[in-house]
Design brief:
The structure is a single chain. This protein is an all-alpha fold and 167 residues long. Helix content is 57%, strand content 0%. It contains 6 helices and no strands. The longest helix has 27 residues.
Length: 167
Amino acid sequence: MKRTDTPPAWDERATLTTFLDYVRATVHAKCEGLAEEDARRAPLPTSPLMTMSGLVNHVRWVEYFWFQVVFLGEDDQGPWTEEDPDREMRIAVETPIAQLLAEYEAQCARYRELVTAHDLDDRAKWAGRGKDHVTLRWVLMHLIEETARHNGHLDMVREMVDGVTGV
């Protein structure tokens, strides 16, 4: 996966999609060479769900939620429950990191097609928590922000589990 933040054109769509792909590719870069054991380690005693695997699975399911549930209005089939709202992070340690990354990339490819097929001003089918039908533009911006924030978490966790920095 090519990792660049320079869009092929300077229009809004190219800029948004390039930045989203850049932060997605950064998730993969943060996990390069990561040992399976380290992918499952939670180095922060007060944050037992904060693992490399958990973070990768979380960004995957965040995209699912915003694209399929909010934007498309599909029924929520996510792994979370009312009793366990962070279940996607908990169950991630049961899956090899390579599989999580491959599933995330396959899903991202589908969402690239979804974004291509819609106008940035298209409104979400579900109003969501904010009680407003956000635009596709807003969903893209939100996913850039959320994935970038979690890349910072991946940075810190990676350094704590195996000392790798600067990716």
